[in-house]
Amino acid sequence: MAEPKIRERQRLIRLRASDRTLLSSLLVTKDYTGIEEILDTPILLQIHGLLGHFLARGTPRLLPHALLERGFSSMSLNTRLAFAGQFTGKGIFDDTLLDIDAALKFLNDTGFNNIYILGYSLGASMLAYWFANRKPRNVRGIVFEGIHYSTSDAQRARLEKWGGSPTYEEIYERAKCVLGDDPYKSKRDEIFVVYRARGPTQEPTDNEIFTYKTWWFMMGPHAYGAMAHKQIPKIEVPILFLRGKNDFVVHQWEVDELVKIGEEAGNKNIRLRVVPNARHDCMENPEVMLEEIVKMMNSYSA
Amino acid sequence: MNFNEVEEYSGTIISIPFNSHKIDALHYHIDTHSNHREHKPVIVRLHGVLGNILDETEHYLPSILADNDFSSVTMNTILANLGLFFGFGIFDDTIPQIDAVCDYLRNIGFRKIIIAGHGLGGSIALRYCALRNDIKRYPDLNGVIAIATPFSMPDTIRRRWERFGSEPSYDEVYERAKRIFNPEDKAEPAHDETIIVKKAHGPTNLPEHTEIYTLKTWWALSGPEAEGAKAYKQIGNIKDIPVLLVHASKDEIIEGRDSEDLCEIAKSNGNKDVTHVNIDANHSFDGRHDELAQAIINWLNDRF
Prior knowledge:
heterodimer, A: alpha/beta, 2 domains, two-stranded antiparallel ribbon, 10 helices, globular, B: alpha/beta, Rossmann fold, 11 helices
């Protein structure tokens, strides 16, 4: 086993969100002597999916180095929902706004001029919510990879399909009871398991685990932030939608609808690419995924 | 915020091949001089329960060690992140992972390896060094550091659950787990299941007082038959390398006598280099990281 040759600059960067939450991120750039050498190079900020992080297999792990081979930089952010955030009660979907704020502030303060953002799966929902709320002027384009029309609708459908226990309605009733009138400020919370949430068995890999509070803001019927269809009309920058042709998590109708909603809202720079030979993770076909992302970054950079 | 401010927090993330997977690790202070690698020990660090290489607390010690010219590699074991929750985080499966990291370090020229862990990581470190207590076969395994390590993980967990009146109780979980590992006559072994234990860490149903396992991961880490996680059964087998035990005198998780008792067992089994250090700190050594690091650096400098 040889020592790894670290050709590029790979930096673990730790950021504080405005509420003091500590965030880790990984900045991958070409090697340089002075920082000014890389500031005009397009950089992609990447946001992980459910229970994900920037070392998780697939897109989070593979994309940064594949981008670097094509001359682009990246920064991968671990939000408060990374790892087990949704089990601890601290991983509130709506609060990820602050995490993306912190990452963008770092990129802006450093002086990067051509910033793009990619959200993968749940990260795509976080990105849609963030963009719709912040409307940043200095982001040149965004990529949604494997985005749900609505995470709450998707979970309800999954639980119905597999006979989840408790049912979606039972979780909702229990959540109301535990969290009371103001779920965000509620001092009460509990962890719970949904058996058969992702498959037909009681095995741990078919289960989902949340706290009532994290569920409320990510999967509940009032989790408006995680409903991409409510966010897309507010996004005016170029959007690239990517969906694996064999994706069994996100249905084709979901992205078709989101594209339609965006176009009807007046966004003329929306592109959808169905990636052949890929499931939920489009890096199963890196050539096509990279072709699309590179095309976008080349088209809209200054 | 500027670029220079964040640089000091940087380590380098490396991925070490392991079977068909990779072990992620954080390498601090990669000194490539052969003299450094031959003479200075490298510290392999093991995280605690639900830890990972990116935890804030995992960075204090490596950065202070680096300032004192010690390289370290903090590794994600199979128990990192979600391992305990989804059934694959089995305590003893960490052993071949540590082998892989040690092999990697040998391969790049390090000749002295210290295994160090905090809490659960300390239990794993002692287990590993007990299983590899063979100076001819592992001449470069030069020491072990166990920080805030329980005398016995199963006993510590049982006591804590009893103290707070956990739901379900320790015995109830044991009965359920036995259906997998010791099914009654002619019964099919049960399948693994996720278990949520409320009031495991404190008196409420809040998430911070709750623990999550699967029956299999609980059995391997916390069950009464989890021999590997009983440090007192491991430390007596570590006879030929120096042992440093660090106790936090205000530890809210580990009993006060645990490391003293471990120290006594190690000595009474013939280990002539066992050090016990007490630091006025809580289990996480909040605000006392410098003191902890200094104790470790002194111990290292005295020996290497």
